Amino acid sequence: MVDSTAGRVDRAAKASKSDAGVLVVGLGRFGSAMAMTLDRLGQDVLAVERSPQLVAHFSDRLPIVEADATSPEALEQLGARDFSVAVVGVGTSLEASVLITGNLVDLGTAQIWAKAISAEHGRILQRIGAHHVVFPEADAGNRVAHLVSGKLLDYIEVEDGFTIVKMRPPRETQGFTIAQSKVRERYGVTIIGVKSPGQEFVYAEPQTRIAATDLLVVSGHSDLLERFAARP
Known about the structure:
Layout: E1 3-4, H1 9-16, E2 22-25, H2 29-40, E3 45-49, H3 52-58, E4 64-66, H4 72-77, E5 85-88, H5 94-107, E6 111-115, H6 119-128, E7 132-134, H7 136-148, E8 152-159, E9 162-167, H8 178-181, H9 183-187, E10 190-195, E11 202-203, E12 215-221, H10 222-229
Parallel strand pairs: 2-3, 2-5, 3-4, 5-6, 6-7
Antiparallel strand pairs: 1-4, 8-9, 9-12, 10-11, 10-12
C-alpha cells in the first residue's frame, strides 16, 4: 500500500515526475538528515517510509509517502522508476536494505547510494548493484578521532588517503608568506586557502602571508597532514 500524506503533495508529484529528483528511502537519522538537507538545498525530494509514526512526524516538512519499499510493486506505484538518484537510508535491517537496493537496481535507477553498517553489509550492497556505499558511523568515528587527537579543526577524507583539513598555522609559518614557508617542499602538503578573522576566505597564492590568528585549509595525504599539524 502507498499512502500519500497531507501537505506538500504538489512538490511530491513534481519530484516523482522529474529525472533530476532524489528518492530517499527510510527516515532514520541518516535518511532524514539526507532528505532534509536535500530539500533545504532546493532539490526535488520524495521520502519513502513504512512507519506511520515517522510519516506523521515528517509530513509537514517533506514530500513523503507511506510505503513498504521492499515491495517492487509499491516502488512502481509511487513512481520510483522516474528518479535518477535514490538513497537507501535503511541500515538496521540487513534484509530490508538488500531488498530495497535490489528493487532499485531492477528499476534501472542511475545512481543508488546505500547506507551500510558493516563491511560485510557494504560488500553485499556493492555486489547487488549499489553505485555508492556509505558508512556514516565509521566515517564519523574516523573523522572525530583525527579531530580529538591533534590540532585539526576539521577533517574530510576525499579518497585513497587524500584529505582536506582546517587547522591553525604552525609557528614556523606565522609571519611568512606561503612561498617563504616552503610548506609543500618541506611537508608534501598544499595550503589551499587562508581565513583571517573577520575576513573572507581567500585562495592561497605564493605571496599570501600567514598570521598566527589565521585558519589554514590544507590538502594532502592524511599521514603528511598529521605530520604537518603536529608541528608546534
